[in-house]
């Protein structure tokens, strides 16, 4: 069942990204470009997504365990450290250049364009680079 | 500042779908729908831990593809960047999201939903950095990204 749930969750996630046009970097860069012609799309996407999780996670996390797994696997750290900030800065630069974050970049592979394919190759490369140079 | 034409209803509906996807993954499987973590795990883990991540990522691509089939007008992609810059940006996003333990989905959609202070700080940081980056790329360097 875990695997069926993974597929269904992935389908919904990818469909949501495409419906919201987050797979078009112009929509994302248009939101981040405050001094040009502004595109509010991402505000509605994030509002819809976070409003949903803010409500649903309250109920979900009140349960003793998930339905098909022995325990919730949640991040436990609470501290704000240099890696968190530094990583967010490096990510923000890449996001601001390409207009893709990981989810939309991967979902946009469905377009069959060389642009998301190139992004995802770089994404995998950056993760492998981290694994062999910076992982504690 | 002018506002470009946009479609609030599909954007809101898409956001709610993303939130529902994160909800069922947490409720049923106990997992956070953080795409950078899932992508890295799909490369690094083995067996069942790799399989569920690969299935989720394949589902994402199929789900987006299904929307494009049903709504061809939404299947658009505009990018004015040379491919080497897209590649370099991908490397920064891959490295940065691992170093910072998450991206827009893990810290944004799920972390904010859990009221995590770390995620709130991460979201503010990468939003601010990306806004400055777009300003530099488009209005200082003059690149039509």
UniProtKB/TrEMBL annotation, chain A:
Pfam families recorded: DUF6691 (PF20398)
Membrane spanning stretches: 44-61, 82-100, 106-130
InterPro entries recorded: DUF6691
Keywords, comma-separated and alphabetical: Membrane, Transmembrane, Transmembrane helix
Protein name (Swiss-Prot/TrEMBL): Sulphur transport domain-containing protein
Organism: wastewater metagenome
TrEMBL record, chain B:
Membrane-protein topology: Multi-pass membrane protein
Coiled coil stretches, renumbered: none
A cellular-component GO term for this protein: plasma membrane
Transmembrane segments: 12-30, 51-71, 83-100, 120-141
InterPro entries, sorted: Sulf_transp_TsuA/YedE
Keyword Metal-binding assigned: no
Subcellular location: Cell inner membrane
Transmembrane among keywords: yes
Keyword set, alphabetical order: Cell inner membrane, Cell membrane, Membrane, Transmembrane, Transmembrane helix, Transport
Entry protein name: Sulphur transport domain-containing protein
């Amino acid at each position: 069942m875990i695997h069926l749930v993974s597929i269904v969750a992935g389908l919904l996630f990818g469909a949501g990204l495409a419906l919201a046009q987050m797979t078009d970097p112009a929509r994302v860069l248009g939101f981040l470009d405050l001094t040009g012609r502004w595109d509010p799309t991402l505000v509605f996407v994030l509002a819809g997504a976070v409003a949903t999780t803010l409500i649903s996670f309250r109920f979900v996390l009140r349960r003793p365990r998930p339905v098909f797994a022995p325990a919730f696997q949640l991040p436990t750290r609470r501290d704000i450290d240099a890696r968190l900030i530094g990583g967010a800065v490096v990510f923000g630069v890449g996001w601001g250049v390409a207009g893709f974050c990981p989810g939309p970049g991967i979902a946009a592979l469905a377009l069959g364009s060389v642009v998301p394919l190139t992004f995802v190759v770089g994404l995998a490369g950056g993760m492998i680079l981290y694994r062999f140079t910076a992982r504690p | 500042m002018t506002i470009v034409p946009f479609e609030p209803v599909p954007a809101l509906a898409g956001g709610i779908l993303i939130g529902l996807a994160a909800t069922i993954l947490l409720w049923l499987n106990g997992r956070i729908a953080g795409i950078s973590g899932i992508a890295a795990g799909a490369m690094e883990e083995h067996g069942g831990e790799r399989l569920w991540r690969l299935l989720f990522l394949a589902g994402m691509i199929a789900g987006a593809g299904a929307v494009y089939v049903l709504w061809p007008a939404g299947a658009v992609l505009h990018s004015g960047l040379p491919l080497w810059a897209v590649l370099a940006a991908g490397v920064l996003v891959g490295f940065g999201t691992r170093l910072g333990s998450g991206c827009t989905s893990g810290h944004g959609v799920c972390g904010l939903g859990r009221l995590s202070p770390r995620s709130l700080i991460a979201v503010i940081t990468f939003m601010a950095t990306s806004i400055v980056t777009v300003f530099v790329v488009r209005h200082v360097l003059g690149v039509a990204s």
